Amino acid sequence: MKPPAARQDFPLAPMAPWTWPALLGLWALLLLFAFLGGTHVQSPTNPVPWWLMTLFGTALLPAGLLSMLAHRQIRIEHDRLLVAGALLFARKIAISDLGLDKARIVNLDEHTEYKPMLRLLGFNFPGLTVGICLLRNRSRAFCLLTSQPQALLLPQRNGGLILVSPEKPQALLDALRAA
Asked: For 98, which DSSP code?
């Protein structure tokens, strides 16, 4: 058996195809409100046109959301599992702290008790849920989920849960068991 690599990355399942158009639609809506929402008087002391300030000012929110959507990863580093998303939310867990004998791949459409019901601390955008969520079975889990119904449920020995949706959940589970 080949020893596990020091670092393995596991890509997340793709987000919903309408996630990126939703981000663009948000910017268009912000632009519409900004341009139609009031008087636009150019100050004689300000050399920058008002429309340019509006264009770039409204782009700040979608750009921030874009950077949060782009930062998501599942990685095995030596003897630790790193699950990170949305720039602010990450978990680094020793693989020995996971109950891999009880870990399983679940279809969230069939096993609705593992679907997030309430986001306690995290980030949610159409096609991506990151953070600590209360599941429908009333247990708490750290989630990094895309719109794919298949997810990997990783129980921790301390009673917590980790729910992730990698592109290939079986490959991640096999790598964790081999580590």
From this structure: B
Query: What are 86's two structure tokens?
Result: 């949305």
Nearest to 142 by CA among 167, 123, 127: 123
Domain definitions of the chain by residue range: 19-69, 73-178
Element (H, E) at 130: strand 128-135
- Model pTM score: 0.86
Which residue type sits at 80?
R
Which letter, b or e, does each residue of 17-30 get, where b requires 16 or more Cβ atoms within 10 Å of its Cβ? eebeeebeeebeeb
Handedness of CA 177, 107, 159, 83 (dihedral sign): positive
- Has residue 154 got a pLDDT over 50? yes
3-state helix/strand/coil string of 14-70: CCCCCHHHHHHHHHHHHHHHHHHCCCCCCCCCCCCCHHHHHHHHHHHHHHHHHHHHH
Each residue's pLDDT tens digit, 24-42: 999 999 999 999 987 888 8
